[in-house]
Specification:
single chain, 100 residues, 86% helix, mainly alpha, globular, 4 helices
Amino acid sequence: MAGVPAGVVAAGGLVGGYGVARWTKKRPLGGVALAAAGVVAARGWREKAGNGTAAALSGMYVAAFAGSHPLAKKVGAWPSVFAVAGGVALASWALADRRS
């Protein structure tokens, strides 16, 4: 996956998925955006850092999505989404993207 770093794709998927779900009021549509970005990011992680790292970062992506919900109750929805997206982007840079 040349061009856009996988961490940017993953962070965009978390932010974009939430935005789509919120603005369309159709959660499944947001889930489609989230899943599509996750697939693209995982492919980039695999190409740059191998299957193990891709699996770990994909797990983090899913955990970030799940963890954003309870975090949102403490800090608000958008701050929560931006926080977990930033965490995934940082992990992606540290484990895969900086290798390019």
